[in-house]
Structures are given as structure tokens and as C-alpha cells.
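Render DNA 3'-5' helicase in 3D.
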Amino acid sequence: MPSKRTAPPPETPGASKAGKASPSSSPRSCTRQSTPTRGSASKLDGPREGRKGAAAVAERPRQLDISDFPYLLRPAQDSRDFTALALEPGQQTRPVWIAGSGSLILEAFHPLAAHARDLLVAIAEPMSRPALVHEYRLTVHSLYAAVAAGLTPGDIIAALQRWCKNKVPPNVARFIQQCGKSYGKVKLVLRKARYWLETADPAVLRVLLQDPEIARCRADHGTQVPAVIAAEGAGYGPSLLAASQRGATPEASSLLHGDDDDNDDDGANGPVIHAVQIRDDKVSAVAERCLALRYPALEEYDFRNDHVNADLDIDLRPGTQIRPHQEQSLNKMFGNGRAKSGIVVLPCGAGKTLVGIAAACTIKKGVVVLATGSIAAVQWRDEFLKWTNVDPASIALFVSGEKSPFAGSTGVLITTYAMVTNTRARAGESARMIELLTTREWGLMVLDEVHVAPAQTFRTVVGCVKAHAKLGLTATLLREDDRVDDLNFLIGPKLYEASWLELSQQGHIARVQCAEVWCPMPSEFYEQYLRAGARSRPLFCAMNPTKFQACQYLIRYHESRGDKIIVFSDNVYALEVYAKKLMKPFLYGGTSNAERQEVLDYFRNSPDCSTLFLSKIGDTSLDLPEATVLIQISAQYGSRRQEAQRLGRVLRAKRRNEEGFNAFFYSLVSKDTVEMVYSAKRQVFLVDQGYAFRVITQLKNIEDMPGLAYATPQARRELLRQVLAEAESSSWRAEEEKEAAGLLADGNMFYSREGRPAARQGGSKAGPTAGRISSAVSGGRDMTYHDQKKRANKVFTEQKKAPHSNFFKAIAREKERRKKQVDHGSSA
């Protein structure tokens, strides 16, 4: 049968005469506006559907947002005044408020709150979820995920009308309808190890191909006419019935449809699908551009009809129990019988690994797992063997110390981000493993700690590893550079996010009491702190003798209760001093892997070891369910992610279901220093999750504790002398280099090569988004420390430039003597 030809699609009138969005669009419904006149009444209806054509969007590509559909309130004195919202009859029986900005407020204390919460989790992004009032926000990505799960715009609007106390603003309804209308028109499909951009609408394809950025990403560089295929129904996945093309190359025809010519008659009446091939290294760029053009590229995998890729013999063991929140996340991924790419957010200890393994057992195709480091990769292999019946020979490990391919035609390959993105020349086993990873199709790619993926280094992973479905797992969907939104086109929308507080109440993770212990700094220490440079000040904060005493007190108290304690310190010098003074084991980046495993096993199994000191290498990929108490003596500036990750070390405590059990999280902060500012920023995420931080200003009877360190003025002065000498020497730089080398060798991707946090770009803030209720309800915005006497401190520092006591004069003379010795040695 001759191939079917189609005439060039006609120009779409709306595409050539599209109007621009109203200039009065406002990103917030509470923005004060003048009262609309008759001439401007049309602005209340937002941008007209007919005038917002594809061509106008193509001229100025920008992601769809609710600000494109402005909703104007009457002028009010208070910018947060929503009294103009019209209430529904019987609003007392409804638990949700909705604003024209897309914000949804849930009264968590309402009797029907649990039923409304299921709807809000499905259609909106959770912003803040303390005990009594929760805040959600409708976003384009959350609505895309809802439509992908099978909800129609009409279903969403009807459900909101049923649960909201006030009438649904008309601009919100139009925003929901627009998101539902544009979703699913474009698909990004992997077929025979090549990526194709497909659509059933020729006008949509024309808009995409006319975009210069997408045109540069075509594999044929625009020299070939897009392929035309006939598919059964709307599901144009791997199971294509027939094909016909218009100007496509024979190779493209073979890739799209195979070589079976007997199916031509069956597909003659099927809908026509238009497709263009995309370069492998430009997949993420195309997905990002499609999102900006308001045609999000849908990535779904019809794995049940994939008869090309080999099946993997893998199933969960009979005794495996899937918890309700894990089942909900899997239902979001496989709700329509296909595997949707996206992200699952579960707190530490809630079973993220089992969710990824269960997804692999559902798809039953080749699996790639990307971990943050070699220790995490080994843990993933152990978890696969623990929860599934997979043959151990079918699991390949590709890390710095082991490179073992799997036996058979398919299997599970576990590696690290660093191994995949390494640009150095490869040889031998590494070259063969990279070839295995990049030259074949995979059914599923699991990205552990997926929030590292937006980094420019790792964006290439999405293109070089060809996977039909991508599942991102993380506990903290946070980045201090505000690039988390990039995951929406690199991986997919957020499929599910569990509430930390609810899981702790249900017993799936431990209940935690959080406390911030304020440690006043002795006057001689504080004087030197004010004189020190910005780089040395954290050392004085960490070595505060009052903080040391607080740490000693808490360790002794909890060891007497039989608790296992982890003490974290980002400052390696302080870590070593604390551990040696208290005679406890410690681990940092310079510790060898053999010694690291030996110390961890000793902590897990020995009753004689109740306390372990850790540097930032323990932030992630460390499974210590025996730990029930965490003490933090120094941290990474204002990192919210690190605070949540460290809290996760005690969330999986084995004793979590014991009657009256509580885990404890202590953050020791030097009072009246920059640590208080950073501490408030770090706690914002946990406060939004419902955790409350109790401030402790005095530990009971600490001065009466026997053997209290640095209890005399002489001991404190000797400690200060050591700290000053350390600040002047270069030994701490050597320790930092060892720490950085350890992080790099372990493949830990949360820090830069120097072991420091990546610099934030664009002046992004660590605090919550403006307009949230967290400042009024959860306390996240109000938990900030302000130094109201900066000028007084400056005057005090200027007055104290010269030492006045014999002690400090002796220190100054010692510094001068050392400096002369160094100068004399260099001249000789």
C-alpha cells in the first residue's frame, strides 16, 4: 500500500493574530488597584482565550502563570485584606479558603480537613503545613501533574467549589482550564535510543519548529521534513500500528515504525502523529523551551506494550509491606497504567528507597540508579537484594572502587552522579561501563537526592542516559540557588509530597523535639570574635567554651538515658578538639573508608560507644537507625537543606514506636553572633513542616556537673590562646583540604570542590516566599535575629584595637615573634 500523504497544514488564524497579555497583570491578588471603569471592565476577565494565540507566546516565551489571569479586588487599606471575597452559603461546613492569587488556606482543625487535604495535595503545591493552618498554592506544574493523574479541569473546579468557603475567583477557574487545555499536546518519546518530539496537532508542531532554539536542537538541523505516523487512538507510544511519511528518511521511518509493512492497512484510519527527532544532548533544552512556549512535553512510558526492550525478572518479596504514603506516591506515578516521570518527596526515614525499588518492580525493564556517593550506591544494591528477588548477578555496580557489569540482556545498574558526568578519558572497565550505560534504552532511571540534578554539571545526565521514565527521590526539594524549578523540565512535575508532621503522628518516622540552645560567649572570646575576619569568626563560634560545656552536658545527660548520640560539626578543627577532649570517636573527610566502616559498625553494635562525632560527610547517605539524639555545634551557614537532612538522621530511629519515645535535635548557637542569623534561616523549612523550636537559654545545674570543661578562667584563656594560634596558622587549611578531598572521593555532590556550599546566584534569599502565611502562623519569618547595635559594635572594635591586658599583650608578642621567625627563614 502506498504511504499516506497529508497536505501541509493550514495556517491557524489565532496563531497569526494573537494579542498580548494585559499589561495590568499582577502576580498577587492583593495588589492594590484602582476601581475598574466600564472601559476597563474586560480586564477583570483576564486575557482572552482567542487572542492569546501561539504566535504571541512564541514571540516572548514565558512560562504560564496565574498572574496572566489577574483578579482585581476593591481598594483596601491593608494589602492582605481579602474581605471582598464572596462567601458561599453554608461556609461554616467547608475547610478551605481560596484567593485570586492561587493561594489555598486549609483549616487543619476542621472536621472535614482530612478529606479536603487529599484534593489539595493532588492539585496544589504545599507551602507551609504547621499544626493548625496549612497553605497551598496552585501552580502550573501542580495542575499539570493533576491533569496527568486523570483529573479534568472541570473536576478540579467542581471540587474546589465544593470545599471552598468563598466563591472560586473567575481568574483561578480560567487558569485551571488553560493548564488543562495545553497539557498533553506534546510528547517527548524515546524510541530505539533516539528522542522524538511528537504531537497530533500540526499547528502546534509548526509553532515549536519555528522557535529558533528548538530548531537548533533538531537532529537533522532542519533539513528533513517532520515524519508523519499513524497511531492507534491517542496513545502514540511504542505500539504504533502503521506509518507513512512525507519526506522523512528511510532510517527515520524504520526508527519510528519498525520494518513490518503488514500493519499499513490497520493504521490507515488512525490519527496522524507528527514527529521530529531531537539531539540527545538537547533533550532538557527542548523540554525547557516547550514549557516556556506553554506546551509542556509529556513523558509517559507505556511499559506494558514495550516488546522491544528485554524484561527484567524482578518482584518484591512476599513479606514486603508498602506503607500508605508509599502506595499513594506509586499511584501518582502509575495512575493511568503508564509510568509518568516526576518527583516524589518523602522525609528521611519514610522509605524513599523502597518507593524507587517498587517502581522498578512495576516496570520490569532495565533500571539505572544514580546515587550521591559510593556509600549510597552500595546501600542501594543492598536494598535491592533485601526487598526483591532479583538475581544478584543482574545488579551492576559502577563506582570508583568497583566496576562490575550485570549478566544477561538487562539488569539494574547503580552508579553515582560523579561517575556519569566525569569528563576525563576512560579506559578498560570504565569505558565498557559507560558504553553500557549510554548506548542502550533503560526502562527507569531513579535519581536519588534529585535536588542535585539542576546543577549545570548534572544536566547532561538526562540526555546521555536514555531512560523512558525518570523518578526523582528527595527529602528536601530545596536549593539555595533557587534552581529547583528546573527539575520540572529536567525530570518532571512533583508527583507526591508527604507531610512530615503527619508521618510522625502515624508512627512512620520518629517524633522529634527540636531545641535551639543559646550559648553566651565569654567576654575575652567575644572581643576576639569582633576583631576577627569573616572567615575566622565561625571558628570562634564553634570553639565557644560555653558551647563546649553545653555539648558535654547534653552528651552526659542522654548517655545516662541509654541514647545513641550524633554530634555534627562542619568545622573540622572544632570536631577534632571536641572529640578528643571528650574521648569520643570522630569521622571526617580525611578518614579512610576502612576506618569509617569500622567506626560506624562500632557505633551501631557496641554498648560502649554511645556518641559519634561527624563532619558534613554524614549529612546524607548514612543509615544509623540506632541514633536517637543529634547535637549540632556548627553548620553550613543558612542552609535549610542541611538542617533538614541532619534532622533526618534521627527520624528513622528504631525506637520510634515505643510508648512516649521522642528523638531530640539540639542546635547549639553562640549568642549575639552571626550564628543566630544563620540558625533562623536554616530552620525555616522545618518550621514550615510543622516543627517548633524551643529556645533554651540555661541548662539546669550545668555549673554543678562534675568534670565540667573550661570551668576556670585559666582554662578558658588557654583555649583562647590555642584558637588564636589556630586562626593564624595554616593547619586548618590542610584539614579543610582533607575534608574536601573526602567529599569529592565519596562523590558527595552537595558541596563544591573546596567543600564549601555553592554560591547563590541572583541574590536569592533563604527565607520563605513573600506573601506566605508562614510569618503569621508557622513563625518561619519571625524567627530572625537582628543586631540592632551594629554601630556600637563597630565603635567597640575600634576602641579595642590595642591589647590592654597582660594576657593579650603576651599573645600579641608571641604573634610578632612568630612573624619575625617566618620572615627571617624566608630571607635566609
